[in-house]
Design a protein that fits this description.
CATH class: Mainly Beta
Order of helices and strands: HEHEEEEEEEEEE
CATH architecture: Beta Barrel
Structural class: mainly beta
Radius of gyration: 26 Å
Number of helices: 2
Number of domains: 1
Distance between the termini: 48 Å
Helix content: 10-25%
Strand content: over 45%
Number of strands: 11
Largest sheet: 8 strands, antiparallel, barrel
Length: 222
């Protein structure tokens, strides 16, 4: 009987220890987030190096699509409601294209940046604002009279972002973000018909350009 009591006592202690361990785990939350988003985007600011300058054509060219991937480290927290500050990494790509009688433009922009974000967690989701410096790769793979013409304009850039997320589970959520990438340039490179040259804009000097994107997607917390 003594041996049986010892066995039951040991089993009970192990069971209580396991329950306590599970309870402690349930009070902790994921420390990192990976996100994928896509949505409409608008080219903002000055258009440098495009093949046609008519306002109607520019308006068509400004409408595009964007996609992005993000990683965030939010740190440890032990309650559903918390305010956290954490670093992150951002990639965003975008595409804008249009055509006219004598040519086309197909603008690709790829943006890579470090981020610093502020996260406002609550029971069913979170709000986030972030900003950071990065580098924007710009390429306009255009055509003029059927011949390829490439324009490049790679520049340092900066972004401001804000968004929100609704938690579906402990690890998954649906989210929306507004991201504004800003850069500027006074010159661009052109390759056309076997020639390469640098074009400066003496009329207006340095011109701002960028992309404003409204993105929807999923977040995975781990």
């Amino acid at each position: 009987m003594k041996h049986l009591h010892c066995i039951w006592l040991t089993f009970t202690l192990l069971l209580l220890s396991g329950v306590a361990s599970l309870s402690a785990q349930e009070k902790t939350f994921p420390t990192s987030t990976f996100s994928l988003h896509a949505g409409p985007s608008w080219y903002t600011g000055k258009m440098l190096g495009i093949t046609h300058q008519a306002d109607a054509y520019k308006n068509d060219l400004r409408k595009g699509v964007a996609w992005e991937a993000e990683y965030w480290y939010t740190g440890t927290r032990s309650s559903e409601k918390a305010v956290k500050v954490g670093p992150g990494l951002l990639y965003q790509g975008s595409l804008y294209k249009a055509a006219h009688e004598t040519g086309t433009d197909k603008i690709n922009m790829h943006y890579l940046a470090l981020q610093l974000g502020v996260f406002f967690f609550h029971k069913h989701g979170m709000w986030q604002v972030s900003a950071g410096p990065g580098y924007q790769f710009y390429a306009d793979k255009s055509t003029v009279y059927g011949k390829p013409r490439n324009v490049s304009m790679n520049k340092f850039a900066f972004n401001l972002s804000g968004g929100g997320e609704y938690f579906l589970s402990r690890h998954w959520g649906l989210s929306a973000r507004l991201n504004w990438v800003m850069s500027s340039s006074s010159a661009y490179s052109v390759d056309y018909h076997g020639e390469h040259w640098q074009v400066n804009d003496p009329q207006t000097g340095k011109g701002y350009f960028g992309q404003l994107s409204l993105l929807f997607g999923v977040n995975y917390h781990f």
